[in-house]
Each structure stands twice: as structure tokens, then as C-alpha cells.
Specification:
This protein has 334 residues and is of the alpha/beta class. The chain has eleven helices and 13 strands. The protein has one domain: TIM Barrel (Alpha-Beta Barrel). It has helices at residues 2-9, 14-30, 68-72, 117-126, 148-159, 184-205, 221-233, 269-283, 298-307, 316-321, 324-333; strands at residues 44-46, 49-51, 55-57, 78-84, 97-100, 105-108, 132-137, 165-169, 211-215, 238-241, 262-265, 289-292, 311-314. It is globular, with a radius of gyration of 18 Å.
Length: 334
């Protein structure tokens, strides 16, 4: 069924298809047309949270938390929404989303297009989703990089009461200079600021919301070691490895190989797994890792668990395989 639907959808502009899918899921959910998928899996503890299974939805698919009731019915163990910024922003000019079906890849340079944190919170409040929800936060494109912490603090404070965990996105390649925040001193300063704010919010709300940081796959071992040192020293609750890659050499001479943006799907799997493996070695169990990048079938998810991830997330694989991928991943890990 999904293969037939995909053959039709892939004839339509990717961003148009994305928006149609979100609207379609919303409508189907309201009409009760999405049967709840009870994907029994390995119950998993992640950052102190209890997951019914370790397979989650990665950030980027539901940027504004418009569709969490529908996604919640597909059998995920947890959902992550965003990336969201303090103020609404349109993102980068279109076209900015490209499929590479010959390589089971997707290139995007969306640029954190979203309706802003206040709109996201309204959507969450209006939903009936009762599962584990992560909110992925970022900075506005117009905010100078030296003031990036201000944007993360705004989002952290507003999202805190509505999230089960909060992910700090410093690894998108589509916001100018954002990846500079992964450097040792810059990373340490940002994460210390956010951890201090977390302590104040914990006291104010009587609720501890874990913080995870999402990193890029385009890192060498020295950079990975530095990041591992920082996240352990500031006592982060988790780390997400990885975001999309700017390296498109795997596409060879494909017509889209020179497109700007991050590449996800099958082409990022090797790089993502290498970062995950090295990160797990350097972290040595000090905090859990969520593995994401290139999960196209169940055995890809199981491999990330073997390499040291506690849980995994999928996105591009859903575009190519449909929601059956979730059940396949849960079964493979189990």
C-alpha cells in the first residue's frame, strides 16, 4: 500500500508532499482513521523517562507539533518535535527540499522554518497525546551567534512545562554559523548556561526535564572527544547523534550532489554510525545516546543499539518505507 502511495507522492514537489502529509494525518486522526499501532517492544529507560519501546520520531517532521496525536498512534516509543525558535520565521527560500531516491537520501536546507515557540505550545496544549514528548529548540536566523544563548533560554523557559525532555540543536547546517557552537569553549559556555537555567526551572516547576544536545556527523575523533568531555563535565542528560551531513561525496556525480543543505537517509548512515561508535567509547556510559541517521530498516536500528545507543529516532526512512518501519525497528531491537 505505501509503495503505491509513495510512487504517486514522489511525483509531487517534496515540500508540497510534506505539507499534504501533515494535513492528511491531521484529518485522518480526527476522523478516527488511524488505528493505534501497539508496537510492543523493549521497555527502555532514557534520561529517567520510561519508554514503551526505544524507537522515536526525529525532529524535523513535525516542526510545529501540529500532528502529535496522529504520530502518537503510529507506535513510536517517543516523539520529538521542532526545531522551534523564539520567533516565527519562514526559513530559507524555496526550493529547499530534494529527494535523492537513487540513494534513498533527502537533502534539505529548510532553515528552521516554524511558527515560533508560542504557537507550538498552543498546539501541544490542544492535543491529547499522552506519550513521551521531546521539544527540539534552536535560534532564530537573525540572532547573532554571540547571542545564541538568549534564544535557547527563551525556548527552554517556554517549553519546559510542556516537554518530557528538551533537545538543543546546535548541529543544523542550514543556519549560518550554528555548528560553531559545537566547539569546546562555545559548547561548554552554552550548555552550562542552559543547565543553570534548567536548575532554576526545576525548582520553580517541581519537575525535572532532561536536556539533550544534538550533534553533527561531520566531526573528527578529536572533536568527538572534546564534545564527550564537555557533556560529561556539565552533566548533560543525553546526546543525540547525529544530524544531517554536509558531505555529499556519497552521491557521486548525481545532479543534486552540489545542492546546499544537509543530506539524510541512507547516505549518512556510515558517518552517523562512526560518530556514534566513537562517542559511546568516549562517554563510557556517563549519559545515554539517541542514535539517528540512516535507519532505513530494522537491522539499521538494531545496529545503532549495538554501537552504544540507548534509543533511536527515524525520519528519512519513514519517507521511503512508511510507518511499517517503526514496527520493523521495534522488532529488530527486541
Amino acid at each position: 500500500m505505501y509503495a503505491l502511495a509513495r510512487s504517486i507522492l514522489f511525483k509531487i514537489n517534496p515540500e508540497t508532499t510534506h505539507n499534504m502529509t501533515i494535513k492528511g494525518l491531521q484529518i485522518c486522526n480526527k476522523l478516527g482513521l488511524i488505528p493505534f499501532a501497539n508496537n510492543h517492544g523493549k521497555a527502555t529507560k532514557l534520561m529517567g523517562l520510561h519508554l514503551p519501546n526505544p524507537v522515536g520520531l526525529a525532529a524535523g517532521l513535525d516542526k510545529n507539533s501540529e500532528c502529535i496525536d496522529a504520530f502518537g498512534a503510529l507506535g513510536f516509543g517517543f516523539l520529538e518535535v521542532g526545531t522551534v525558535t523564539p520567533r516565527p520565521q519562514p526559513g530559507n527560500p524555496q526550493p529547499r527540499l530534494f529527494r535523492v531516491p537513487e540513494h534513498q537520501g533527502i537533502i534539505n536546507r529548510m532553515g528552521f522554518n516554524n511558527h515560533g515557540i508560542d504557537a507550538m505550545i498552543r498546539n501541544i496544549e490542544a492535543s491529547s497525546y499522552q506519550g513521551i514528548l521531546g521539544i527540539n529548540i534552536g535560534k532564530n536566523a537573525t540572532t547573532p551567534i554571540e547571542h545564541a544563548a538568549d534564544d535557547y533560554l527563551i525556548c527552554l523557559e517556554k517549553a519546559y512545562a510542556h516537554a518530557d525532555y528538551i533537545a538543543i540543536n546546535i548541529s543544523s547546517p542550514n543556519t549560518k554559523n550554528l555548528r560553531a557552537l559545537q566547539g569546546g569553549d562555545e559548547l561548554s559556555a552554552l550548555l552550562e548556561t542552559l543547565k543553570n537555567k534548567q536548575a532554576h526551572l526545576h525548582a520553580a516547576h517541581g519537575k525535572y526535564v532532561p536536556l539533550a544536545v544534538k550533534i553533527a556527523p561531520d566531526l573528527d575523533e578529536a572533536q568527538i572527544e572534546d564534545i564527550a568531555h564537555v557533556v560529561k563535565s556539565v552533566q548533560m542528560d543525553g546526546i543525540i547523534a547525529t544530524n544531517t551531513t554536509i558531505d555529499k561525496s556519497s552521491l557521486g556525480n548525481h545532479a543534486l550532489a552540489k545542492e546546499q543543505g544537509g543530506l539524510s537517509g541512507l547516505p549518512v548512515r556510515g558517518k552517523s554510525n562512526q560518530v556514534l561508535k566513537l562517542l559511546a567509547e568516549h562517554i563510557d556510559g556517563a549519559l545515554p545516546i539517541i542514535g539517528v541517521g540512516g535507519i532505513m530498516e530494522g537491522r539499521d536500528a538494531a545496529e545503532k543499539i549495538r554501537l552504544g545507543a540507548t534509543a533511536v529516532q527515524v525520519y528519512s526512512g519513514l519517507i521511503y518505507q512508511g510507518s511499517a518501519l517503526v514496527k520493523d525497528c521495534v522488532a529488530a531491537i527486541r
